[in-house]
Amino acid sequence: MWQNLIRTWRIFHVIIRYRLDTFIPVEKLPWFLKYTFGVLSSKGRGNLQGSRGERLRLALESLGPIFVKFGQLLSTRRDLLDDDLADQLAKLQDKVPPFSGEQAQDIIEHSLGAPIADCFDEFALTPLASASIAQVHTAKLKTGEDVVIKVIRPNIEPTIKQDIGLLYTLAKLLNKYSKDGRRLKPIEVVSDYEYTILDELDLAKEAANTGLLQRNFHESDLLYVPQVYWDYCRHNIMVIERIEGIPVANINDLNNANVDMKCLAERGVEIFFTQVFDHSFFHADMHPGNIFVDPSKPESPKYIAIDCAIMGSLTDEDKNYLARNLLAFFDRDYRMVAQLHVESGWVPKDTPVHAFETAIRSVCEPMFAKPLKDISFGQVLIGLFQTARRFNMEVQPQLVLLEKTLLNIEGLGRQLYPDLDLWVTAKPFLERWMKRQIGPQRVFDEIKKQAPEWAGQLPQIPNLIYSALAQASKQEERAIAQTNAILSLNRELKRNRRNTPFKVLGILSIISAWIVSDPVALNHLASADIMGLGLFIAGIYLLVLKP
Protein backbone atom coordinates (compact mmCIF):
# COMPACT_ATOMS: atom_id res chain seq x y z
CA MET A 1 0.00 0.00 0.00
CA TRP A 2 2.74 2.47 0.98
CA GLN A 3 4.73 1.59 -2.12
CA ASN A 4 1.73 2.40 -4.29
CA LEU A 5 1.27 5.74 -2.54
CA ILE A 6 4.95 6.58 -2.97
CA ARG A 7 4.83 5.62 -6.64
CA THR A 8 1.64 7.65 -7.14
CA TRP A 9 3.35 10.66 -5.60
CA ARG A 10 6.32 10.07 -7.92
CA ILE A 11 4.03 10.06 -10.97
CA PHE A 12 2.31 13.25 -9.77
CA HIS A 13 5.72 14.87 -9.23
CA VAL A 14 6.79 14.00 -12.81
CA ILE A 15 3.52 15.39 -14.18
CA ILE A 16 4.14 18.71 -12.39
CA ARG A 17 7.86 18.78 -13.24
CA TYR A 18 7.27 18.40 -16.98
CA ARG A 19 4.00 20.36 -16.86
CA LEU A 20 1.92 17.60 -18.41
CA ASP A 21 -1.06 19.33 -16.83
CA THR A 22 -0.95 21.64 -19.85
CA PHE A 23 -2.36 18.75 -21.91
CA ILE A 24 -5.58 18.86 -19.88
CA PRO A 25 -8.32 21.10 -21.30
CA VAL A 26 -9.23 22.99 -18.12
CA GLU A 27 -12.29 24.57 -19.71
CA LYS A 28 -13.88 21.11 -20.08
CA LEU A 29 -13.41 20.11 -16.46
CA PRO A 30 -16.31 20.12 -13.95
CA TRP A 31 -16.65 23.43 -12.10
CA PHE A 32 -15.27 22.08 -8.81
CA LEU A 33 -12.08 20.95 -10.60
CA LYS A 34 -11.88 23.98 -12.83
CA TYR A 35 -11.47 26.31 -9.83
CA THR A 36 -9.02 24.05 -7.98
CA PHE A 37 -6.87 22.12 -10.41
CA GLY A 38 -7.33 24.77 -13.08
CA VAL A 39 -6.01 27.61 -10.89
CA LEU A 40 -3.13 25.45 -9.63
CA SER A 41 -2.03 24.34 -13.08
CA SER A 42 -2.24 27.83 -14.58
CA LYS A 43 0.66 28.98 -12.42
CA GLY A 44 3.97 28.74 -14.21
CA ARG A 45 2.54 27.99 -17.64
CA GLY A 46 4.34 31.01 -18.97
CA ASN A 47 7.76 29.57 -17.95
CA LEU A 48 7.51 26.25 -19.80
CA GLN A 49 10.82 24.84 -21.07
CA GLY A 50 10.87 22.66 -24.18
CA SER A 51 8.12 21.76 -26.58
CA ARG A 52 5.12 19.78 -25.40
CA GLY A 53 6.30 16.71 -27.33
CA GLU A 54 9.73 16.85 -25.72
CA ARG A 55 8.25 17.29 -22.25
CA LEU A 56 5.93 14.31 -22.80
CA ARG A 57 8.82 12.13 -23.99
CA LEU A 58 11.04 13.10 -21.06
CA ALA A 59 8.22 12.45 -18.61
CA LEU A 60 7.62 8.96 -19.98
CA GLU A 61 11.34 8.21 -19.88
CA SER A 62 11.48 9.38 -16.29
CA LEU A 63 8.53 7.20 -15.25
CA GLY A 64 10.13 3.99 -16.47
CA PRO A 65 9.71 1.12 -18.93
CA ILE A 66 5.94 0.61 -18.66
CA PHE A 67 5.30 4.24 -19.59
CA VAL A 68 8.00 4.16 -22.28
CA LYS A 69 6.23 1.23 -23.93
CA PHE A 70 2.98 3.15 -23.82
CA GLY A 71 4.74 6.00 -25.63
CA GLN A 72 6.11 3.57 -28.21
CA LEU A 73 2.59 2.43 -29.01
CA LEU A 74 1.33 6.01 -29.30
CA SER A 75 4.21 6.95 -31.62
CA THR A 76 2.76 4.70 -34.36
CA ARG A 77 -0.65 6.41 -34.24
CA ARG A 78 -0.08 9.57 -36.26
CA ASP A 79 -3.79 9.60 -37.05
CA LEU A 80 -4.44 10.22 -33.34
CA LEU A 81 -1.48 12.50 -32.53
CA ASP A 82 -0.11 15.73 -33.93
CA ASP A 83 3.20 15.40 -35.79
CA ASP A 84 5.23 17.17 -33.09
CA LEU A 85 4.10 14.64 -30.47
CA ALA A 86 4.54 11.61 -32.75
CA ASP A 87 8.06 12.71 -33.77
CA GLN A 88 9.18 13.01 -30.15
CA LEU A 89 7.57 9.76 -29.03
CA ALA A 90 9.23 7.95 -31.94
CA LYS A 91 12.56 8.56 -30.17
CA LEU A 92 11.43 6.20 -27.42
CA GLN A 93 11.73 3.25 -29.80
CA ASP A 94 15.51 2.99 -29.66
CA LYS A 95 16.83 6.27 -28.23
CA VAL A 96 16.12 5.87 -24.53
CA PRO A 97 19.04 7.24 -22.45
CA PRO A 98 21.55 4.36 -21.99
CA PHE A 99 23.37 3.16 -18.90
CA SER A 100 27.17 3.09 -18.93
CA GLY A 101 29.09 0.71 -21.18
CA GLU A 102 31.35 -0.26 -18.28
CA GLN A 103 28.33 -1.37 -16.30
CA ALA A 104 27.12 -3.39 -19.28
CA GLN A 105 30.54 -5.04 -19.56
CA ASP A 106 30.46 -5.99 -15.87
CA ILE A 107 27.04 -7.61 -16.35
CA ILE A 108 28.26 -9.58 -19.39
CA GLU A 109 31.42 -10.82 -17.65
CA HIS A 110 29.52 -11.81 -14.51
CA SER A 111 26.89 -13.71 -16.56
CA LEU A 112 29.44 -15.55 -18.72
CA GLY A 113 31.85 -16.14 -15.85
CA ALA A 114 34.84 -14.95 -17.87
CA PRO A 115 36.58 -11.73 -18.91
CA ILE A 116 35.01 -10.21 -22.00
CA ALA A 117 38.31 -10.54 -23.90
CA ASP A 118 38.15 -14.32 -23.48
CA CYS A 119 34.76 -14.47 -25.25
CA PHE A 120 34.94 -11.71 -27.87
CA ASP A 121 37.62 -10.31 -30.15
CA GLU A 122 35.92 -6.91 -30.10
CA PHE A 123 33.42 -5.20 -27.81
CA ALA A 124 32.05 -1.65 -28.16
CA LEU A 125 31.47 0.14 -24.87
CA THR A 126 29.21 2.66 -26.57
CA PRO A 127 25.77 1.07 -27.08
CA LEU A 128 24.39 0.71 -30.58
CA ALA A 129 20.83 1.28 -29.35
CA SER A 130 19.06 1.72 -26.05
CA ALA A 131 15.45 0.84 -25.26
CA SER A 132 13.22 0.73 -22.21
CA ILE A 133 14.17 -2.75 -21.00
CA ALA A 134 17.64 -3.34 -22.40
CA GLN A 135 20.39 -1.90 -24.56
CA VAL A 136 22.53 -3.38 -27.32
CA HIS A 137 26.32 -3.42 -27.84
CA THR A 138 28.19 -4.58 -30.94
CA ALA A 139 30.88 -7.24 -30.69
CA LYS A 140 32.78 -9.86 -32.69
CA LEU A 141 33.11 -13.50 -31.71
CA LYS A 142 36.41 -15.35 -31.58
CA THR A 143 35.23 -17.24 -34.66
CA GLY A 144 34.85 -13.97 -36.59
CA GLU A 145 31.06 -13.46 -36.68
CA ASP A 146 29.73 -9.95 -36.10
CA VAL A 147 27.16 -10.02 -33.32
CA VAL A 148 25.19 -7.79 -31.00
CA ILE A 149 24.85 -8.33 -27.26
CA LYS A 150 21.58 -7.41 -25.61
CA VAL A 151 21.88 -6.55 -21.91
CA ILE A 152 19.01 -6.07 -19.46
CA ARG A 153 19.08 -2.77 -17.61
CA PRO A 154 20.33 -3.19 -14.04
CA ASN A 155 17.86 -2.96 -11.12
CA ILE A 156 14.87 -2.58 -13.44
CA GLU A 157 12.73 -5.40 -12.07
CA PRO A 158 11.77 -3.70 -8.76
CA THR A 159 10.52 -0.61 -10.63
CA ILE A 160 8.45 -2.71 -13.00
CA LYS A 161 6.89 -4.73 -10.17
CA GLN A 162 6.10 -1.51 -8.31
CA ASP A 163 4.33 -0.09 -11.37
CA ILE A 164 2.47 -3.36 -11.86
CA GLY A 165 1.31 -3.15 -8.24
CA LEU A 166 0.00 0.36 -8.88
CA LEU A 167 -1.78 -0.81 -12.02
CA TYR A 168 -3.44 -3.60 -10.03
CA THR A 169 -4.66 -1.05 -7.51
CA LEU A 170 -6.12 1.14 -10.24
CA ALA A 171 -7.65 -1.92 -11.93
CA LYS A 172 -9.33 -3.02 -8.69
CA LEU A 173 -10.75 0.47 -8.17
CA LEU A 174 -12.04 0.52 -11.74
CA ASN A 175 -13.52 -2.94 -11.36
CA LYS A 176 -15.27 -1.97 -8.11
CA TYR A 177 -16.51 1.55 -8.77
CA SER A 178 -16.84 1.90 -12.55
CA LYS A 179 -19.97 0.72 -14.30
CA ASP A 180 -17.70 -0.51 -17.12
CA GLY A 181 -15.30 -2.27 -14.77
CA ARG A 182 -16.60 -5.82 -15.09
CA ARG A 183 -17.02 -5.54 -18.84
CA LEU A 184 -13.50 -4.22 -19.44
CA LYS A 185 -11.91 -6.88 -17.15
CA PRO A 186 -9.12 -4.53 -15.98
CA ILE A 187 -7.63 -7.01 -13.50
CA GLU A 188 -7.31 -9.72 -16.17
CA VAL A 189 -5.77 -7.22 -18.60
CA VAL A 190 -3.17 -6.09 -16.03
CA SER A 191 -2.41 -9.72 -15.18
CA ASP A 192 -1.82 -10.50 -18.85
CA TYR A 193 0.39 -7.43 -19.23
CA GLU A 194 2.34 -8.39 -16.09
CA TYR A 195 3.06 -11.82 -17.54
CA THR A 196 4.19 -10.25 -20.81
CA ILE A 197 6.48 -7.56 -19.47
CA LEU A 198 8.12 -9.83 -16.89
CA ASP A 199 8.89 -12.23 -19.72
CA GLU A 200 10.83 -9.39 -21.35
CA LEU A 201 13.26 -9.48 -18.42
CA ASP A 202 14.26 -13.08 -19.23
CA LEU A 203 16.45 -13.04 -22.33
CA ALA A 204 16.64 -16.84 -22.32
CA LYS A 205 12.94 -16.84 -23.21
CA GLU A 206 13.49 -14.20 -25.86
CA ALA A 207 16.26 -16.32 -27.40
CA ALA A 208 13.87 -19.29 -27.53
CA ASN A 209 11.18 -17.10 -29.13
CA THR A 210 13.69 -15.89 -31.70
CA GLY A 211 14.68 -19.45 -32.53
CA LEU A 212 11.05 -20.51 -33.07
CA LEU A 213 10.23 -17.47 -35.23
CA GLN A 214 13.34 -18.20 -37.28
CA ARG A 215 12.25 -21.80 -37.89
CA ASN A 216 8.74 -20.64 -38.86
CA PHE A 217 10.18 -18.39 -41.59
CA HIS A 218 13.11 -20.59 -42.60
CA GLU A 219 14.00 -19.89 -46.24
CA SER A 220 11.06 -17.47 -46.50
CA ASP A 221 11.31 -14.48 -48.84
CA LEU A 222 9.04 -12.46 -46.51
CA LEU A 223 10.90 -12.25 -43.22
CA TYR A 224 14.43 -12.83 -41.96
CA VAL A 225 15.18 -13.51 -38.28
CA PRO A 226 18.82 -13.26 -37.05
CA GLN A 227 20.74 -16.28 -35.78
CA VAL A 228 20.97 -16.91 -32.02
CA TYR A 229 24.34 -17.90 -30.48
CA TRP A 230 23.12 -20.13 -27.69
CA ASP A 231 26.46 -20.63 -25.93
CA TYR A 232 26.48 -16.94 -24.97
CA CYS A 233 22.84 -16.55 -23.89
CA ARG A 234 21.82 -16.17 -20.26
CA HIS A 235 18.73 -14.85 -18.46
CA ASN A 236 20.06 -11.26 -18.62
CA ILE A 237 22.17 -11.27 -21.81
CA MET A 238 21.60 -12.56 -25.34
CA VAL A 239 23.98 -12.72 -28.30
CA ILE A 240 22.55 -12.76 -31.83
CA GLU A 241 23.74 -12.15 -35.37
CA ARG A 242 24.26 -8.51 -36.31
CA ILE A 243 21.96 -7.61 -39.18
CA GLU A 244 22.28 -4.91 -41.81
CA GLY A 245 19.15 -3.17 -43.03
CA ILE A 246 17.22 0.07 -43.25
CA PRO A 247 14.97 0.93 -40.28
CA VAL A 248 11.40 0.66 -41.54
CA ALA A 249 10.63 4.17 -40.28
CA ASN A 250 13.34 5.73 -42.50
CA ILE A 251 11.03 6.39 -45.43
CA ASN A 252 13.54 8.59 -47.26
CA ASP A 253 16.24 5.90 -47.15
CA LEU A 254 13.76 3.30 -48.42
CA ASN A 255 12.73 5.56 -51.28
CA ASN A 256 16.40 6.27 -52.13
CA ALA A 257 16.94 2.51 -52.30
CA ASN A 258 14.02 2.27 -54.78
CA VAL A 259 12.10 -0.06 -52.50
CA ASP A 260 8.62 -0.92 -53.77
CA MET A 261 6.62 0.62 -50.94
CA LYS A 262 3.32 -0.93 -52.02
CA CYS A 263 4.85 -4.40 -52.04
CA LEU A 264 6.52 -3.69 -48.70
CA ALA A 265 3.24 -2.66 -47.08
CA GLU A 266 1.35 -5.64 -48.48
CA ARG A 267 4.06 -8.03 -47.32
CA GLY A 268 3.83 -6.59 -43.83
CA VAL A 269 0.12 -7.46 -43.75
CA GLU A 270 0.84 -10.94 -45.14
CA ILE A 271 3.53 -11.58 -42.51
CA PHE A 272 1.17 -10.60 -39.74
CA PHE A 273 -1.66 -12.87 -40.88
CA THR A 274 0.77 -15.72 -41.58
CA GLN A 275 2.08 -15.52 -38.02
CA VAL A 276 -1.37 -15.30 -36.45
CA PHE A 277 -3.27 -17.92 -38.46
CA ASP A 278 -0.66 -20.32 -39.89
CA HIS A 279 1.86 -20.37 -37.05
CA SER A 280 -0.27 -19.37 -34.03
CA PHE A 281 2.82 -17.45 -32.88
CA PHE A 282 3.17 -13.77 -33.70
CA HIS A 283 5.57 -10.93 -32.94
CA ALA A 284 3.57 -8.71 -30.59
CA ASP A 285 5.98 -5.76 -30.33
CA MET A 286 6.15 -4.63 -33.93
CA HIS A 287 6.92 -0.97 -33.45
CA PRO A 288 9.27 0.56 -36.05
CA GLY A 289 12.31 0.28 -33.78
CA ASN A 290 12.14 -3.52 -34.05
CA ILE A 291 11.69 -3.79 -37.83
CA PHE A 292 14.25 -3.36 -40.59
CA VAL A 293 14.15 -3.83 -44.36
CA ASP A 294 16.63 -5.69 -46.56
CA PRO A 295 16.80 -3.54 -49.72
CA SER A 296 18.98 -5.94 -51.73
CA LYS A 297 15.94 -6.85 -53.86
CA PRO A 298 13.98 -3.57 -53.93
CA GLU A 299 11.21 -5.00 -56.12
CA SER A 300 10.50 -7.71 -53.50
CA PRO A 301 11.89 -6.34 -50.21
CA LYS A 302 12.30 -8.61 -47.20
CA TYR A 303 11.59 -7.63 -43.61
CA ILE A 304 14.04 -8.25 -40.77
CA ALA A 305 12.59 -8.68 -37.27
CA ILE A 306 14.43 -8.28 -33.98
CA ASP A 307 13.42 -8.15 -30.30
CA CYS A 308 11.20 -11.20 -29.92
CA ALA A 309 10.59 -10.66 -26.21
CA ILE A 310 6.83 -10.19 -26.55
CA MET A 311 5.17 -12.92 -28.58
CA GLY A 312 1.52 -13.80 -28.77
CA SER A 313 -0.39 -16.96 -29.60
CA LEU A 314 -4.01 -17.92 -30.18
CA THR A 315 -5.90 -21.17 -29.67
CA ASP A 316 -7.58 -22.87 -32.62
CA GLU A 317 -10.93 -21.64 -31.31
CA ASP A 318 -9.66 -18.04 -31.12
CA LYS A 319 -8.27 -18.21 -34.65
CA ASN A 320 -11.44 -19.69 -36.08
CA TYR A 321 -13.59 -17.12 -34.33
CA LEU A 322 -11.32 -14.23 -35.39
CA ALA A 323 -11.16 -15.35 -39.03
CA ARG A 324 -14.94 -15.79 -39.30
CA ASN A 325 -15.48 -12.35 -37.79
CA LEU A 326 -13.01 -10.66 -40.12
CA LEU A 327 -14.46 -12.37 -43.19
CA ALA A 328 -17.94 -11.35 -42.10
CA PHE A 329 -16.68 -7.77 -41.73
CA PHE A 330 -15.09 -7.88 -45.19
CA ASP A 331 -18.35 -9.20 -46.66
CA ARG A 332 -20.31 -6.60 -44.67
CA ASP A 333 -22.32 -9.42 -43.16
CA TYR A 334 -23.02 -7.64 -39.90
CA ARG A 335 -25.73 -10.14 -39.02
CA MET A 336 -23.10 -12.86 -38.90
CA VAL A 337 -20.80 -10.64 -36.84
CA ALA A 338 -23.55 -10.08 -34.30
CA GLN A 339 -24.43 -13.80 -34.16
CA LEU A 340 -20.78 -14.78 -33.71
CA HIS A 341 -20.45 -12.40 -30.80
CA VAL A 342 -23.50 -13.91 -29.14
CA GLU A 343 -22.43 -17.51 -29.81
CA SER A 344 -18.94 -16.88 -28.43
CA GLY A 345 -20.26 -15.30 -25.23
CA TRP A 346 -18.71 -11.90 -25.83
CA VAL A 347 -22.14 -10.38 -25.33
CA PRO A 348 -24.99 -11.82 -23.23
CA LYS A 349 -27.08 -14.60 -24.77
CA ASP A 350 -30.23 -12.47 -24.56
CA THR A 351 -28.70 -9.69 -26.70
CA PRO A 352 -31.13 -8.63 -29.47
CA VAL A 353 -29.18 -9.66 -32.56
CA HIS A 354 -31.04 -7.32 -34.90
CA ALA A 355 -30.28 -4.25 -32.76
CA PHE A 356 -26.66 -5.33 -32.32
CA GLU A 357 -26.35 -5.82 -36.08
CA THR A 358 -27.66 -2.32 -36.75
CA ALA A 359 -25.22 -0.79 -34.26
CA ILE A 360 -22.23 -2.59 -35.80
CA ARG A 361 -23.27 -1.53 -39.30
CA SER A 362 -23.43 2.13 -38.28
CA VAL A 363 -19.85 1.97 -37.02
CA CYS A 364 -18.19 -0.19 -39.68
CA GLU A 365 -19.93 0.62 -42.93
CA PRO A 366 -18.07 3.94 -43.44
CA MET A 367 -14.76 2.06 -43.38
CA PHE A 368 -15.24 0.36 -46.74
CA ALA A 369 -14.58 1.60 -50.26
CA LYS A 370 -11.91 3.95 -48.92
CA PRO A 371 -8.10 3.79 -49.03
CA LEU A 372 -6.28 3.50 -45.74
CA LYS A 373 -5.31 7.18 -45.69
CA ASP A 374 -8.99 8.20 -45.62
CA ILE A 375 -10.01 5.90 -42.76
CA SER A 376 -9.97 7.29 -39.23
CA PHE A 377 -9.33 4.19 -37.16
CA GLY A 378 -9.44 6.33 -34.05
CA GLN A 379 -13.07 7.24 -34.75
CA VAL A 380 -13.87 3.60 -35.58
CA LEU A 381 -12.41 2.43 -32.25
CA ILE A 382 -14.41 5.05 -30.39
CA GLY A 383 -17.57 3.96 -32.17
CA LEU A 384 -16.94 0.29 -31.40
CA PHE A 385 -16.28 1.15 -27.77
CA GLN A 386 -19.61 2.94 -27.57
CA THR A 387 -21.29 -0.07 -29.13
CA ALA A 388 -19.54 -2.31 -26.62
CA ARG A 389 -20.86 -0.25 -23.73
CA ARG A 390 -24.39 -0.38 -25.07
CA PHE A 391 -24.45 -4.17 -25.44
CA ASN A 392 -22.18 -5.05 -22.47
CA MET A 393 -19.48 -6.51 -24.68
CA GLU A 394 -16.64 -7.90 -22.56
CA VAL A 395 -12.93 -7.40 -23.14
CA GLN A 396 -11.13 -10.62 -24.09
CA PRO A 397 -7.73 -10.54 -22.32
CA GLN A 398 -6.26 -13.24 -24.59
CA LEU A 399 -6.69 -10.88 -27.56
CA VAL A 400 -5.15 -7.78 -26.01
CA LEU A 401 -1.71 -8.45 -27.55
CA LEU A 402 -3.32 -9.11 -30.92
CA GLU A 403 -5.23 -5.83 -30.76
CA LYS A 404 -2.03 -3.97 -29.82
CA THR A 405 -0.19 -5.57 -32.75
CA LEU A 406 -3.00 -4.66 -35.12
CA LEU A 407 -2.62 -1.04 -34.04
CA ASN A 408 1.11 -1.21 -34.77
CA ILE A 409 0.52 -2.82 -38.18
CA GLU A 410 -2.04 -0.20 -39.12
CA GLY A 411 0.27 2.63 -38.04
CA LEU A 412 3.17 1.11 -39.96
CA GLY A 413 1.05 0.63 -43.10
CA ARG A 414 -0.03 4.26 -42.93
CA GLN A 415 3.61 5.40 -42.93
CA LEU A 416 4.79 3.07 -45.71
CA TYR A 417 1.95 3.26 -48.21
CA PRO A 418 -1.02 5.44 -47.26
CA ASP A 419 -3.08 4.15 -50.22
CA LEU A 420 -2.90 0.53 -49.06
CA ASP A 421 -6.34 -1.10 -48.94
CA LEU A 422 -5.98 -3.27 -45.87
CA TRP A 423 -9.21 -5.16 -46.55
CA VAL A 424 -8.34 -6.13 -50.12
CA THR A 425 -4.93 -7.32 -48.95
CA ALA A 426 -6.15 -9.39 -46.02
CA LYS A 427 -9.38 -10.93 -47.33
CA PRO A 428 -7.85 -13.40 -49.86
CA PHE A 429 -5.48 -14.68 -47.18
CA LEU A 430 -8.32 -15.32 -44.72
CA GLU A 431 -10.44 -17.03 -47.38
CA ARG A 432 -7.59 -19.40 -48.24
CA TRP A 433 -7.04 -20.13 -44.55
CA MET A 434 -10.72 -20.92 -43.94
CA LYS A 435 -10.79 -23.28 -46.95
CA ARG A 436 -7.78 -25.11 -45.51
CA GLN A 437 -9.62 -25.51 -42.21
CA ILE A 438 -12.67 -27.24 -43.70
CA GLY A 439 -11.31 -28.82 -46.90
CA PRO A 440 -9.53 -32.09 -47.77
CA GLN A 441 -6.16 -30.48 -47.06
CA ARG A 442 -7.09 -30.14 -43.36
CA VAL A 443 -8.00 -33.86 -43.21
CA PHE A 444 -4.69 -34.77 -44.85
CA ASP A 445 -2.76 -32.50 -42.48
CA GLU A 446 -4.46 -34.06 -39.45
CA ILE A 447 -3.64 -37.57 -40.71
CA LYS A 448 -0.06 -36.50 -41.31
CA LYS A 449 0.12 -34.99 -37.83
CA GLN A 450 -1.28 -38.09 -36.12
CA ALA A 451 0.65 -40.62 -38.26
CA PRO A 452 3.72 -40.88 -35.96
CA GLU A 453 1.52 -41.63 -32.96
CA TRP A 454 -0.49 -44.16 -34.91
CA ALA A 455 2.74 -45.82 -36.13
CA GLY A 456 3.94 -46.14 -32.54
CA GLN A 457 0.70 -47.83 -31.53
CA LEU A 458 0.60 -50.18 -34.54
CA PRO A 459 2.57 -53.09 -32.90
CA GLN A 460 0.11 -53.07 -30.01
CA ILE A 461 -2.96 -53.46 -32.24
CA PRO A 462 -3.02 -57.34 -32.30
CA ASN A 463 -2.90 -57.50 -28.50
CA LEU A 464 -5.54 -54.78 -28.28
CA ILE A 465 -7.78 -56.71 -30.71
CA TYR A 466 -7.32 -59.99 -28.77
CA SER A 467 -8.03 -58.23 -25.46
CA ALA A 468 -11.11 -56.57 -26.92
CA LEU A 469 -12.42 -59.89 -28.31
CA ALA A 470 -11.72 -61.70 -25.02
CA GLN A 471 -13.46 -58.97 -23.11
CA ALA A 472 -16.39 -59.13 -25.50
CA SER A 473 -16.57 -62.94 -25.07
CA LYS A 474 -16.60 -62.62 -21.28
CA GLN A 475 -19.28 -59.98 -21.48
CA GLU A 476 -21.33 -62.26 -23.73
CA GLU A 477 -20.98 -65.16 -21.24
CA ARG A 478 -22.05 -62.90 -18.40
CA ALA A 479 -24.97 -61.67 -20.48
CA ILE A 480 -26.09 -65.29 -21.20
CA ALA A 481 -25.78 -66.19 -17.53
CA GLN A 482 -27.80 -63.15 -16.55
CA THR A 483 -30.41 -64.00 -19.19
CA ASN A 484 -30.71 -67.60 -17.92
CA ALA A 485 -31.05 -66.36 -14.35
CA ILE A 486 -33.80 -63.99 -15.40
CA LEU A 487 -35.62 -66.75 -17.31
CA SER A 488 -35.34 -69.07 -14.32
CA LEU A 489 -36.69 -66.40 -12.05
CA ASN A 490 -39.57 -65.75 -14.43
CA ARG A 491 -40.42 -69.48 -14.50
CA GLU A 492 -40.32 -69.58 -10.71
CA LEU A 493 -42.61 -66.58 -10.47
CA LYS A 494 -45.06 -68.12 -12.96
CA ARG A 495 -45.06 -71.40 -11.07
CA ASN A 496 -45.66 -69.61 -7.80
CA ARG A 497 -48.54 -67.66 -9.32
CA ARG A 498 -50.02 -70.94 -10.73
CA ASN A 499 -49.66 -72.83 -7.41
CA THR A 500 -51.00 -70.06 -5.21
CA PRO A 501 -54.64 -71.37 -5.22
CA PHE A 502 -53.42 -74.87 -4.25
CA LYS A 503 -51.39 -73.44 -1.39
CA VAL A 504 -54.39 -71.54 -0.11
CA LEU A 505 -56.49 -74.70 -0.41
CA GLY A 506 -53.79 -76.66 1.44
CA ILE A 507 -53.84 -74.18 4.32
CA LEU A 508 -57.62 -74.38 4.49
CA SER A 509 -57.42 -78.21 4.49
CA ILE A 510 -55.03 -78.22 7.46
CA ILE A 511 -57.26 -75.78 9.33
CA SER A 512 -60.26 -77.96 8.55
CA ALA A 513 -58.39 -81.07 9.71
CA TRP A 514 -57.74 -79.41 13.06
CA ILE A 515 -61.40 -78.47 13.36
CA VAL A 516 -62.90 -81.86 12.48
CA SER A 517 -60.48 -83.70 14.68
CA ASP A 518 -61.71 -81.73 17.68
CA PRO A 519 -64.18 -84.03 19.44
CA VAL A 520 -65.83 -81.08 21.17
CA ALA A 521 -66.50 -79.24 17.94
CA LEU A 522 -67.97 -82.30 16.20
CA ASN A 523 -69.87 -83.86 19.12
CA HIS A 524 -67.45 -86.73 19.53
CA LEU A 525 -68.18 -88.30 16.09
CA ALA A 526 -66.10 -91.48 15.68
CA SER A 527 -65.24 -90.72 12.09
CA ALA A 528 -63.87 -87.22 12.84
CA ASP A 529 -60.36 -88.35 13.44
CA ILE A 530 -60.32 -90.23 10.15
CA MET A 531 -61.66 -87.17 8.25
CA GLY A 532 -59.21 -84.83 9.96
CA LEU A 533 -56.29 -87.11 9.04
CA GLY A 534 -57.40 -87.10 5.41
CA LEU A 535 -57.70 -83.31 5.29
CA PHE A 536 -54.28 -82.91 6.93
CA ILE A 537 -52.62 -85.18 4.39
CA ALA A 538 -54.32 -83.35 1.54
CA GLY A 539 -53.16 -79.97 2.94
CA ILE A 540 -49.57 -81.16 3.28
CA TYR A 541 -49.65 -82.40 -0.29
CA LEU A 542 -50.96 -79.11 -1.62
CA LEU A 543 -48.45 -77.03 0.34
CA VAL A 544 -45.26 -79.07 -0.04
CA LEU A 545 -45.48 -81.80 -2.59
CA LYS A 546 -47.53 -80.06 -5.29
CA PRO A 547 -44.95 -78.80 -7.92
Secondary structure category: alpha+beta
Low-pLDDT stretches: 519-526
In DSSP terms, counting alpha (H) and pi (I) runs of 4 or more, how many helices? 23
Largest sheet: 5 strands, antiparallel
Approximately how much beta-strand content do the residues carry? 5-15%
- Please give the share of residues in helix: 55-70%
Briefly characterize the structure.
Pathway: Cofactor biosynthesis; ubiquinone biosynthesis [regulation]. The chain has 547 residues and is of the alpha+beta class. It is built from 23 helices and eleven strands.
Sequence-ordered SSE layout with sheet pairings:
Elements: H1 2-17, H2 31-34, H3 37-42, H4 52-63, H5 65-75, H6 83-90, H7 101-112, H8 116-119, E1 120-123, E2 129-130, E3 134-141, E4 146-152, H9 157-177, H10 181-184, H11 186-200, H12 203-216, E5 223-224, E6 237-241, E7 246-247, H13 251-256, H14 261-279, E8 282-283, E9 291-294, E10 302-305, E11 311-312, H15 316-330, H16 334-344, H17 353-364, H18 377-391, H19 400-416, H20 422-438, H21 440-457, H22 461-516, H23 528-545
Helix pairs in contact: 1-9, 4-5, 4-6, 5-6, 9-11, 14-19, 14-20, 15-16, 15-20, 16-17, 17-18, 22-23
